[in-house]
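Weekly puzzle thread! Below is a chain. First person to post its structure in token form gets bragging rights.
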Amino acid sequence: MSHSAASDGSVLLDLELRPHRSLPPAGFGVLMAVLGAVSLAAGIVFLSIGAWPVFGFFGLDVLAVYVAFRISYRRADMAERLRLAGDALTVDRIVRRRTAERWTFQPFWLRVQMDEPPRWDSRLVLTSHGRRLEIGAFLAPTERAGAAQALRSALSLYRRHVSAS
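Winning reply:
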């Protein structure tokens, strides 16, 4: 999650939300090599005592772990970008190999909803004029709370600026 403001004051919020990856690609390679070696060694032991069908199941375990991590990495290859500039808050959801989705809200009427204190099932929801958009579903509760606070601060700053004009 990153937050910045432009020097001219026109951009009040530029926030990018990304899922956390628990294991970098290099670590994934090491994990798969270790799992493969352990499974091969255990499989050879079972093969040597005549339990040859067990040998194949060790390979299936490694394959299952590989597939699970690939699915996890594919789901983590996304981002949500929130940008408050001018008279609009735009939310862009970018998912690999899909068309980016964009929502635009008028920030004066926008409300940020989230449970306080945050729980695992807490949702960060933007609401305005009967529209609802959940953001940051892939974040940990404390990260969602931080994003909610950053949004509320930027919206408060926007409203003070509009009211003063």
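Puzzle host: Confirmed. Bonus trivia for everyone else. The two ends are 31 Å apart (CA to CA).
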